[in-house]
Automatic annotation (TrEMBL):
<dbReference type="InterPro" id="IPR001279">
    <property type="entry name" value="Metallo-B-lactamas"/>
</dbReference>
<protein>
    <submittedName>
        <fullName>Hydroxyacylglutathione hydrolase</fullName>
        <ecNumber>3.1.2.6</ecNumber>
    </submittedName>
</protein>
<dbReference type="InterPro" id="IPR050855">
    <property type="entry name" value="NDM-1-like"/>
</dbReference>
<keyword id="KW-0378">Hydrolase</keyword>
<dbReference type="GO" id="GO:0004416">
    <property type="term" value="F:hydroxyacylglutathione hydrolase activity"/>
</dbReference>
<dbReference type="InterPro" id="IPR036866">
    <property type="entry name" value="RibonucZ/Hydroxyglut_hydro"/>
</dbReference>
<dbReference type="Pfam" id="PF00753">
    <property type="entry name" value="Lactamase_B"/>
</dbReference>
<feature type="domain" description="Metallo-beta-lactamase">
    <location>
        <begin position="60"/>
        <end position="287"/>
    </location>
</feature>
């Protein structure tokens, strides 16, 4: 089991409650793991848990805030209310900053790790309000541009689109669910403006003219979305992982607003293996609680993915010509197959079976097992 950075945050997350503020480091140096006597020094890193629609550890999202001598950097500013962003987002952030001798006017950089509403939702409006630079990953911005072109463009670019006939589904079962998926695609939360800075894997924010006292480096960690970014601070040994790896749940995969190509599960496992460089770092996830011992959670997460791949491999070994629908009916689902047939998650589940079948046919599982043995 990974080790929580803060026992209080850990207990709140397990109870499904919104955790209190967490100071990761501050003026006095070292990891605080507490909100007691917050420092008003010029270099602090805080984690704010922001409420969002959801249940359990998914009823809040973490926003990371750095207070530096040159300004304030906000990573993933949260899911704003469509009716009142001032009350839901701006006022709480300003209150938090003023309690630490700063203000919302000092926000100079807004970073979005990926294009989901709980992470990027308030990014555009916050940058517009404060005049801050909006920073988005190059690959994720490509997904955003696809989404902006509308449902038809997004569907046309979907290599793993679920076609009822091609997957072997009985007539009339998937069609209503697919139509529902198309209807609910509402990308209201995407930034209206063009990002000021687009970053690539390996880019250092200090080289791009951003905060010199917050030396983050971008790490492309695709899978959850095609352009998902994590960030590392090599000096403080911190990994801001967003939704790539979390301590309580496993992330959904292949959830880009616009697909760019490639197998998201394959990309995810490659990125998970790559993170071994940061096994000694403290992890700030998008949900759950901050933790250490990244290696343990990497292996747990990889095993979760490999277990499904092994299951698909075993089913295919009996009959390699089985349809995706037949495979899906035989794998293990938390809801059971009958439950899945009634679930809104069925389309997503079928998509992942398409991906897993491709992975098994390519022999990728064997590589994964070597990487995580």
């Amino acid at each position: 089991m990974n080790t929580p950075l803060s026992e209080a945050q850990y207990q709140s997350a397990l109870a499904g409650e919104t955790p209190a503020l967490l100071r990761v480091y501050g003026h006095h140096g070292g990891y605080a793991g507490t909100t007691a006597n917050p420092s008003k020094g010029r270099d602090e890193l805080w984690v704010r848990a922001l409420d969002m629609p959801g249940r359990g550890s998914m009823n809040f999202v973490y926003s990371t805030v750095h207070l530096g001598k040159d300004g304030v950097t906000v990573i993933d500013p949260g899911w704003p209310s469509r009716k009142d962003i001032q009350t839901s987002t701006f006022d709480p952030l300003d209150t938090f900053l003023r309690e630490r001798g700063r203000s919302i006017e000092e926000v100079t950089t807004v970073i979005a790790t990926h294009a989901h509403p709980d992470h990027i939702g308030a990014a555009g409006p916050l940058a517009e309000l404060t005049g801050a630079r909006l920073v988005v990953g190059v690959e994720e911005n490509k997904s955003i541009e696809i989404a902006r072109k509308g449902k038809d463009a997004a569907n046309a670019n979907e290599h793993y689109a679920v076609n009822p006939r091609e997957v072997g589904a009985p007539e009339g079962v998937l069609e209503p669910m697919l139509e529902e998926v198309r209807q609910v695609r509402d990308h209201w939360y995407l930034p209206k403006q063009t990002p000021d800075i687009l970053i690539n894997d390996g880019d250092k924010l200090t080289d791009l003219g951003l905060s010199e006292d917050f030396p983050l480096e971008a790490v492309h960690t695709p899978g959850h979305t095609d352009g998902h970014l994590s960030f590392v601070d090599r000096e403080q040994k911190i990994l801001i992982a967003a939704d790539h790896i979390m301590p309580i749940i496993f992330p959904g995969l292949g959830l880009s607003v616009g697909m760019l190509g490639g197998n998201p599960i394959s990309q995810y496992m490659e990125a998970m293996h790559r993170l071994r460089e940061f096994d000694g770092y403290t992890v700030i996830p998008g949900h759950g609680y901050c933790f250490t011992d990244l290696r343990t959670r990497r292996y747990e997460t990889a095993e979760h993915v490999m277990k499904r791949a092994r299951e698909v491999r075993a089913i295919l070994s009996d009959d390699p010509q089985q349809s995706v629908w037949e495979i899906a009916s035989k794998v293990t689902w938390s809801l059971g197959w009958e439950g899945m047939l009634k679930s809104r998650m069925l389309v997503s589940g079928i998509r992942q079976i398409i991906m897993y079948r491709e992975i098994v046919e390519r022999g990728e599982l064997e590589t994964w097992e070597r990487n995580f043995e």
